[in-house]
Q: What sequence folds into this?
């Protein structure tokens, strides 16, 4: 039996570096994000070059060589419609923005009424909870029957889903109100209406901005469903048509466009949030 | 001296019963009789759960008494109003308003009495009409300037509450309470969440402010030393259900400061009240 010699002294304790929970430097963050995007494109390109994968997955080079010339030309050859991609983006953007904006304008008063009046809340809440779990595609037959296949139908589908999400979010904010603040306002002699205007609305403001962002992303996720009500122009219908002809390059281009629109809109709303809730 | 004092708040047989969700009744206050005189500083001490905060809420008009009545200047209190300013333990500052904005919050509900001389268009006679008008922006600014100066926060006029320390936040809340010139200031353990040094400093600030502008103060604390330092009378409440157990007048001269704590009389008061409160703590334990 051999004796393993133990250490004479315990190891000297090392100074511990605690995890940094901060955001870090802005330039590093941006650089990392850009690198991540470039890296992703590189991986995608590499995968599409593999013989087995490439026959299914179109690469960035296919989009540049095939999809873009088809979808972004001035129509001189007569083979393709001029600037088709721009038209697809324009119509989809219009629907998303339209549905979202109407939903936003309706969601705020609904949420405040729900937060403020118990009776209104009890009447509306079960319906909101009921519709919230229904996938938008399931609504399409009803929407087509009621609204036809025009723009109204598409905006309605987007409206319904983003309205529900935004109402619930703003309502949570109103319900979450800090009662000490309400009490404080009461002791200053504030009326109920004044409490609403001076306490409830400013308190819910960050929730309104969060709701707006959630609403945009919901509106975009509903786009494909909305365009299933029948249309030629639109990114959703472009993707569906391309799928039928197995044009993966066009499918991927459509996905990229929707993602980019979402990213830009979200960033704009994030800027607004930072600008208007500096007190938070 | 006590004959000359005018009663400000009179509580008679104030009872408060809470009913829990299971229907069980909790008696928070069981017949509180207490008179608070004009411009006196009353501190209320007692074990936690003895209904101190409930009593303050009832005076503030934020809660209704189950039984008994409570009057301010002889008029029954029927709801909250800006004749009473409340300072909460959790500061209750509006986070979206700056220091100045917070101090000016209460001013928007105040009306200024003004006598205007007018000419009757028919007879040409001059007459005086009394109007109550809102404060102008300039007047609000002048007032917030004054009270920011009083609590030494002039340099932070444009800061948001999140940028302030706990002590500074409570100073804003005190300035906000003072700015509306209430007849009564109700304070619910305002220094409870602060560290010992900040607390000592704010106690002195509050004493100084009170000596500059006398107000009727109703101050809840569980710190006996704080109560003796601030109060002209200390009210000891019994354990639940809360009643007034004893009222101890503190005959120490104002102006007081932290040095007052070194006086032998101070310690005598403190020990006497502490012993009394401690008995109530033991009651609670049983």
A:
């Amino acid at each position: 039996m051999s004796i393993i010699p133990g250490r004479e002294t315990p190891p000297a304790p090392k100074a511990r570096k605690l995890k940094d929970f901060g955001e870090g430097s802005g330039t590093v963050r941006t650089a990392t994000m850009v690198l991540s995007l470039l890296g992703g494109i590189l991986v995608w390109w590499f995968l599409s070059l593999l013989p087995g994968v490439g026959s299914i997955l179109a690469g960035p080079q296919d989009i540049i060589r095939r999809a873009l010339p088809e979808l972004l030309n001035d129509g001189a050859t007569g083979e393709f419609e001029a600037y088709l991609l721009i038209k697809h983006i324009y119509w989809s953007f219009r629907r998303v923005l339209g549905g979202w904006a109407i939903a936003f304008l309706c969601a705020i008063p609904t949420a405040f009424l729900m937060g403020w009046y118990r009776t209104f809340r009890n009447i509306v809440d079960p319906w909101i909870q009921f519709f919230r779990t229904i996938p938008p595609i399931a609504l399409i037959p009803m929407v087509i029957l009621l609204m036809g296949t025009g723009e109204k139908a598409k905006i309605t589908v987007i409206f319904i889903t983003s309205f529900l999400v935004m109402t619930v979010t703003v309502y949570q904010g109103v319900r979450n109100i800090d009662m000490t603040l309400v009490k404080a306002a009461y002791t200053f002699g504030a009326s109920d209406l004044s409490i609403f205007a001076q306490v409830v609305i400013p308190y819910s403001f960050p929730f309104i901005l969060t709701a707006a962002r959630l609403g945009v992303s919901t509106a975009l996720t509903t786009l494909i469903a909305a365009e299933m009500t029948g249309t030629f122009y639109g990114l959703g219908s472009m993707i569906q048509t391309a799928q039928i002809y197995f044009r993966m390059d066009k499918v991927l281009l459509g996905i990229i466009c929707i993602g980019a629109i979402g990213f830009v809109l979200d960033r704009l709303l994030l800027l607004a949030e930072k600008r208007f809730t500096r007190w938070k | 001296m006590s004959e000359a004092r005018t009663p400000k708040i009179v509580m008679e047989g104030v009872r408060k019963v809470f009913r829990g969700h299971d229907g069980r009744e909790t008696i928070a206050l069981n017949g509180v009789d207490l008179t608070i005189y004009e411009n006196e500083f009353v501190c209320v001490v007692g074990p936690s759960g003895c209904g101190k905060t409930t009593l303050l809420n009832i005076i503030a008009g934020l809660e209704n008494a189950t039984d008994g009545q409570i009057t301010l200047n002889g008029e029954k209190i029927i709801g909250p109003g800006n004749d009473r300013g409340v300072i909460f333990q959790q500061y209750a500052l509006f986070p979206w308003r700056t220091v100045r904005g917070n101090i000016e919050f209460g001013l928007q509900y105040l009306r200024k009495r003004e006598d205007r001389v007018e000419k009757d268009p028919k007879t040409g006679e001059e007459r005086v009409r009394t109007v109550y008008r809102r404060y102008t922006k300039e007047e609000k600014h002048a007032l917030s300037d004054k009270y920011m100066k009083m609590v030494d926060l002039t340099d932070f006029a444009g800061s948001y509450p999140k940028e302030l320390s706990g002590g500074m936040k409570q100073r804003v809340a005190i300035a906000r309470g003072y700015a509306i010139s209430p007849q009564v200031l109700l304070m619910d353990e305002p220094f409870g969440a602060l560290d010992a040094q900040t607390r000592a400093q704010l106690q002195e600030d509050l004493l100084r402010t009170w000596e500059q502008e006398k107000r009727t103060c109703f101050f809840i604390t569980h710190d006996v030393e704080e109560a003796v330092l601030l109060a002209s009378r200390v009210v000891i409440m019994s354990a639940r259900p809360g009643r007034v157990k004893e009222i101890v007048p503190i005959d120490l001269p104002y102006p007081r400061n932290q040095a007052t704590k070194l006086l032998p009389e101070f310690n005598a008061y403190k020990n006497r009240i502490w012993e009394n409160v401690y008995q109530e703590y033991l009651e609670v334990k049983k």
